[in-house]
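Form 7-S
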Amino acid sequence: MTPPSEKANRERGSKPFSLKRQAGNRPIKMRILIVGEGQQTEPNYFRYLKEEHVVRERYAITVKGAHGISQDAVVKETIEFKRRGDYDEVWCILDVEGPSKADNLTAAYELADKNNISLWLSNPSIEVWFLLHLVKQGRPYLDGDSAEKELKKHWSAHFRQDYNKADDGIYMRLRKFIGSAVANAEWVLETHHQATSSRACNSSTDLYRLISRLMPDGLPGNEPDRLKNGAIAPDFKLGDQNGDLVQMSSLRGKTVVLFFHPTIKERASIAEVSSFQSANNNIDRGKVVILGVSPDSITILQESIVKDSLSFLLSDVDHIVGKAYGIWNENTTNGKVHPTMERVTFVIDPAGVLVHTFRDVDVQQHADQVLRLLIEKNLLSKG
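Output:
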């Protein structure tokens, strides 16, 4: 017999959310708590996913990580999180792990049913969901370690670096493959396992249903490459020229001038950064933050600082942020790939909303042009 919460999960996953209305026909955002069974992997993924514009305009999502060493312990921690907050729905992301954890998982389902918590499973682990972004397969795995080993192989081939469970950029790396992941996961569960529960189907995952609920109007991989004014600026975390981490979301409350350029080795980029350096010395840094992003390594940025007295530069060596903002291109000519970062500047208001984009950049005049825009939009005081 199918456990009640598994049936409820499937039924909830097949229905779109209905949004309540208030005066003025404005939707009230549904408040959802998502709890991952780990402190890093699941929370890191969903903290970035919840910032997608298609998600933010419908839902107010809180993401937390649990410390539990078993599935039922994670649900107990989720119950405590629920008690402390005010949520319309509470979701718990769990790994099945293997037969040895069957009793713990049964206890987790019983606790979830009693406390109106939805469980979303990956069997044997969330690495199966990550794998389905990169490859269509339904082979079983002995345990989570086996799934992780398979993921590492495909991860290295796609991203030219090792998979790291604590990687803060997992979501942004996988973002453009979400459409494939949803289709592949549905194929595995609905066809390969005849639509039975993920609890009993190794390997499979419920997360494609969760993603489809959060993004009923379209997945990131189906969106236009270029950001539009009015969109929420994608969050990111990059190292600066001093090796310190800068996170976009931590700058809320300030206007951000985010300019991308191909490389600090170019004279045009040096001229552009120098002009922004002069502007940076004459603004209220408590209100406006200027950041320059390039695919250069931190070492190269540091060498440029010593040579040219440049600052406020961020290193996007993996091109994750460039891709998220739609300005990283890989053009092919005569069979050769020519990757480049476009010279584009985004102006982001204190609420994190993109208010203006400069694409035709004159590096000599650009900083003054940006400052005039900030004044016009009351984002920078003339005094």
